[in-house]
Each structure stands twice: as structure tokens, then as C-alpha cells.
Structure to design on (311 residues):
């Protein structure tokens, strides 16, 4: 099969579009014919070797951990899916990934894709969607009437987070550049803050829940605009030390894994018209180096989609 593999850690030149063995479907696996995948920052962080102490990969590896496609084969113990089912997944990050024509994924990590969108649109949802869901719903307990602040609201996680928070009845404040204001407001944000021209403390107050997608100075500025008892959930750093200076506030950090219940709820919201994926760029799999370069630039609106196979 055609796949993108890395044989050593390094810059984007280590990404090789080449022939690779088709994965073997074990008893607990479904073999998915990949139609669409997506690029996430974790892909190039793994490629650079930033996670090699946490996840000791045996080279070569196939990166990519977003997929939408069609079930081609099922293992002997699989009961939820049949050949031909349209599915999507954020699979186990310790196994070979989705930059390939086929991927074997545990049945427990697979959900039926949203019915109302294409495989390419579904493919950009899993990792970012699970991240937003974990931060806002599972940890943040987003609810009607809360004031929720979402940083980088035009980004991959942020664009979904705005919509998920709105679907739970929250009052949403989104930050971004002025160029992305119309997009962020179209996703449902009730307030917009241009981080380039406006200090957060001058525009926002009494925030109950912050989804921190940036860390650093952005996280630091968030504490001062939160209501007593408010919670900051970070997906990029551990805020435990910082919150010691704000004893009336709470903090949590997240690192997500496969989450089928979140994917099922997300698919339902998509099919109800309450969540739509935002695709900022699309590439063929063979152009993966260009896709990584764009992701590493940090200036991506929504998600980067990868076309892998035919629907």
C-alpha cells in the first residue's frame, strides 16, 4: 500500500511517501480503507522526536491519528461493525497511524462517522473534537449560563470548542486575530477579542471556564479575567503551579486518548447541524511535507485535511 513513513526523527524531509506493508487485522481490529486523514500538531511533534521518551516507537512508523473511511475487514471478535460501514476514529497513538491507504484499529476505538458530511470533513474531527470535548464537557462540565473563554477560536480545537460550548448553552467568548473574527462569530461566539489589538483584561471578565489552547502569556492573562471558583483547562501545559497564585480559582490539564463516546456525541451534533468542521487547507497524501510545513507555521484556520483514498 502507499503510505507516509518516517525512518528517523527530524524535519519534514524525513517524511517518505512510499510502499509499506498492508496492516494485519487482529481479532479485535477493524481494517479501515482510509478515505481521509488530517494533520495535527502532535504529528510533527512526534516526527521531531519530542515524544520519544514517552512513546518509544520502533522505526519506521506511519504518523497520523485522524481517520475517516470504510471498513474493509473485521476481526473474529468484532461485533459492532460490518464490512462496508462508514467509520471514523482517533486511534491508539502508539500504533501505526493514518497516513496510509489502510489502517488496523481496535474496534473499541472506532465510531460510525457523521452521516451528513463527507469522509474528508469527518476526518478532521476526531483528535481535535475529542480534545475540545474532554476539556469542555468531561472536565469542564460546560453548562447553560456559563461564560466560557476559548483561545485561538479559529484553530482546529478552538473552532470545534466554540460550537460544542454553544451546543451546551454557554455564553462563548472567542479570541483570535481580526482576520478571523467573521469565522469565529459564524461558529456561534457571543463575544470576540482580537488578541493583537486588545488586552484580555480590558475586554473580558467573570469567566467560569477557560479552554487554554496556547499556554504561556495567554494562559497567564486568563487568570485575571476569571470568576471566583472558575476553572482553567489547559491542553498544552500543566497550570497547577500558576494557579497557586490564584487560590480562588481551579486548574486542570488534559492529554487525550481514543474516546468513542465523545465521537458518538460529536457525530450526533454534526448531524443535528450544531457542529460543522472547518477545513482551512487540503492536501494529497503525497504532499504531506507541505501539509506539515503549514501546520508548523502556526497559522492554520480550522484543520488541515488529507485526501488519501476514494470514498
Amino acid at each position: 500500500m502507499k503510505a507516509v513513513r518516517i525512518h528517523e526523527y527530524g524535519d519534514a524531509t524525513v517524511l517518505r511517501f512510499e510502499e509499506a506493508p498492508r496492516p494485519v487485522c487482529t481479532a479485535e481490529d477493524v481494517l479501515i480503507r482510509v478515505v481521509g486523514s488530517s494533520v495535527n500538531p502532535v504529528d510533527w511533534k512526534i516526527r521531531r522526536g519530542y515524544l520519544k521518551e514517552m512513546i518509544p516507537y520502533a522505526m519506521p512508523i506511519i504518523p497520523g491519528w485522524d481517520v475517516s473511511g470504510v471498513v474493509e475487514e473485521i476481526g473474529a471478535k468484532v461485533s459492532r461493525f460490518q464490512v462496508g460501514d462508514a467509520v471514523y476514529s482517533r486511534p491508539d497513538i502508539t500504533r501505526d497511524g493514518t497516513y496510509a491507504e489502510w489502517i488496523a484499529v481496535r474496534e473499541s476505538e472506532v465510531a460510525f462517522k457523521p452521516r451528513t458530511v463527507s469522509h474528508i470533513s469527518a476526518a478532521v474531527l476526531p483528535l481535535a473534537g475529542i480534545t475540545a470535548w474532554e476539556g469542555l464537557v468531561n472536565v469542564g462540565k460546560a453548562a447553560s449560563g456559563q461564560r466560557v473563554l476559548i483561545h485561538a477560536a479559529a484553530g482546529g480545537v478552538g473552532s470545534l470548542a466554540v460550537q460544542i460550548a454553544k451546543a451546551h448553552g454557554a455564553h462563548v467568548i472567542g479570541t483570535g486575530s481580526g482576520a478571523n473574527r467573521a469565522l469565529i462569530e459564524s461558529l456561534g461566539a457571543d463575544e470576540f477579542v482580537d488578541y493583537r489589538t486588545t488586552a484580555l483584561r480590558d475586554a473580558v471578565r467573570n469567566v467560569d471556564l477557560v479552554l487554554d489552547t496556547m499556554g504561556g502569556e495567554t494562559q497567564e492573562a486568563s487568570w485575571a479575567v476569571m470568576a471566583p471558583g472558575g476553572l482553567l483547562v489547559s491542553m498544552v501545559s500543566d497550570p497547577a503551579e500558576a494557579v497557586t497564585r490564584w487560590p480562588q480559582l481551579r486548574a486542570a490539564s488534559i492529554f487525550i486518548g481514543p474516546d468513542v463516546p465523545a465521537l458518538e456525541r460529536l457525530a450526533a451534533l454534526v448531524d443535528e447541524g450544531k457542529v460543522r468542521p472547518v477545513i482551512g487547507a487540503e492536501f494529497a497524501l503525497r504532499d504531506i511535507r507541505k501539509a506539515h510545513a503549514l501546520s508548523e507555521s502556526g497559522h492554520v484556520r480550522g484543520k488541515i485535511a488529507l485526501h488519501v483514498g476514494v470514498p
